[in-house]
């Protein structure tokens, strides 16, 4: 249970908990102690976790994890806008990266709760010209089409590309999307709110003025929780874990001036609206 809940002696935590809407639980960082990591996240009230993928090479591992922790780890498969070419070397995604992923997405389509992690990343070290940006756009457009065909939401990354990402999603007629760790301006985020999109807030909000401003503007009805573990933790350079979902929730409750219980209830309802397949994890 989160600290403030323990203090308040709130008992309803048995009935409801948090949902981590974006987590890289298949990362090698968790290979050695995944049981403990999952146990400690359950102790703070985590009910379910969406395991997102970055490339086809980790799809089978994500499916295996979802089978090892049924009703707790829910798989999302997709191709991230930044791909590793060799250790320490990365480039923007191209359609060829998606070709390797498509047969595996097709194979597991009935198990997926979303297509992700997909998106646009225009950080200068990954894109040097318009062709690179265009490749990323094509990969995202194709995955948006697949999500529509499968009636699945998108779990979306955008970095230095907030406006192009939201515009592309709207152009493609995407109705169900989670914008994770959105780094754009609040005014751009509000365009996403108008389109019915949700925004998930990671624990790094405690050290990010941009995310604090974003949360002030966003209606709670469009906010979800995430950890993006092992990245975006409350402390830089320290492995982030799903149990830190509390850090996001507590910070949002402070900024919004509502109870932690309210943040839990509303964000979990939001997650259920966006990802209806999570219903099997939420006990009435
Ligand atoms: Zn991520």
UniProtKB/TrEMBL annotation:
It comes from the Eukaryota. CDD domains: TatD_DNAse. Belongs to the metallo-dependent hydrolases superfamily. TatD-type hydrolase family. Coiled coil: none annotated. This is Putative deoxyribonuclease TATDN3. The keyword Metal-binding applies. PANTHER family: DEOXYRIBONUCLEASE TATDN3-RELATED, HYDROLASE OF PHP SUPERFAMILY-RELATED PROTEIN. It holds the Pfam family TatD_DNase. Keywords: Hydrolase, Metal-binding. GO terms for molecular function: hydrolase activity, acting on ester bonds; metal ion binding. Transmembrane segments: none annotated. A divalent metal cation 1 binds at residues 22, 24, 117, 228. The keyword Ribosomal protein does not apply. Exhibits 3'-exonuclease activities and apurinic/apyrimidinic (AP) endonuclease (in vitro). Show preferential AP endonuclease activity on double-stranded DNA substrates and 3'- exonuclease activity on single-stranded DNA. A divalent metal cation 2 binds at residues 157, 180.
